[in-house]
Amino acid sequence: MKTNLANLPSSTSAVEKETANVQSQDTINALIQQISQELQSQVKATPATIQVVAIRIAKEVERICSKSYRIQKSGQIKSWLFSLARHRLQKCLHYYQLGSRRGRVELHSTLGSMVYRHISLPGCQLGFDARYNLIEDFLQAFYIEAIKAFRRENELPQDYTPKTRLQLAEYMAFTEQYAKRRISLPGNANQQLIILRAQGFSRRLPQETTVDMEMALESAKSEDAEAYQRNSAVQQVRSQMVAQSNFDPAEEAERDRVVSELVNYLQSQGQNDCVDYLCLKLQDLSAPEIDKILGLTSRQRDYLQQRFKYHVEKFARTHNWQLVHQWLGASLEQKLGMSSTQWEAFVAQLSEQQRQMLQLKSAKQNDQAIAKELKCTPKQLQKRWTKLLELAWSIRNGNTEIQLG
């Protein structure tokens, strides 16, 4: 039997390359199968939908690994593939478990907190309401950019929109990761994509806007006047006037006070690893860089992030809520960051005892005196007040599912 030499590879390197390609495809197929099995055990969707989502996740992490010089240089490409895929899968399942509404609220809150300090008008000190309106405008445009990027990177039709719960979770997970992508800048620097977009958005904002000052200052007495005062430019004027009358030039010092108090709280709770994590996050380091410095695996980092988030929320809602809300421009004097309409809806849901608690807090009574007045223990008072802040947060973010007990 004669061998057809024309069908043989021309060199040893060609053989190695062909073998590597086969091995790479085997790895991707194994990755797709693993993702599919994990999804099948945790979501309700057709096998075809699960397979398509698994393929997209596998393609995304393969693209990341192929373009990352650091991953290629590490020689552990397969390990990185499965590690990144696991992270993407867990993020997708997280949004799936939250569901459509709660998932949207969490994504919106996550992205909003990332750009909060970067959305501003040149030369303006914005209050919470004015900044909130600008963030809303910015994020709507960012969501449009994200869905276009999702379609483009996954080679989907231009009119594709997520329809099932799993597809929506996949898109929300992609949007969060897309926002956190690191973009290289001159001088070996880098920055998250959403922050660069927010800074560009702020630079494009017009510096001058015509506003009827009398209508802006007066209380709304008609539907037209109320609609006018909801205009973002008018709210910026009102917030600016409040800021000028009560302006604290040490805003950065206030932030430092919050960070310092948070560090003290974490240390008092024996969460020194959370303190280390916070210090590295404040330096704007990426997750892999933090992992390397702290010597964490992906699972250990996820657990640390969950504990850190839990303690930050506890700190913000119980231990030092006044300081945090003051820094965010959402103190009691500012209706906890809510608009007048939201504040009325908030107060309407309170019982007589809860309104009394709110009045005593507004009058700056200490917790011991309030607990005695309401005939409860300080610990019971703290729990009730935390519930009140949770309801305020829920209304402020457009989610009224939380009810007071």
Protein topology:
Blueprint: H1 12-42, H2 47-67, H3 69-74, H4 77-115, H5 128-153, H6 165-179, E1 182-185, E2 189-192, H7 193-204, H8 213-217, H9 223-229, H10 232-245, H11 251-268, H12 272-282, H13 287-294, H14 298-319, H15 321-327, H16 340-348, H17 352-362, H18 367-374, H19 378-396
Antiparallel strand pairs: 1-2
Q: What is shown here, in short?
A:
The chain is an all-alpha fold and 405 residues long.
Structural class by SSE content: mainly alpha
Portion of residues in beta strands equals under 5%
Radius of gyration, taken over Cα atoms and rounded to an integer in Å: 26 Å
Largest sheet: 2 strands, antiparallel
Q: What form results from the Cα inertia axes?
A: globular
Head-to-tail CA distance between termini: 86 Å
Widest sheet: strand ordering: 1-2
N-to-C order of helices and strands: HHHHHHEEHHHHHHHHHHHHH
Mean pLDDT across the residues is 75
List low-confidence stretches: 1-12, 14-20, 244-250, 326-330, 399-405
Roughly how much helix do the residues carry, as a percent range? over 70%
The total count of helices amounts to 19
* Tally of DSSP β-strands: 2
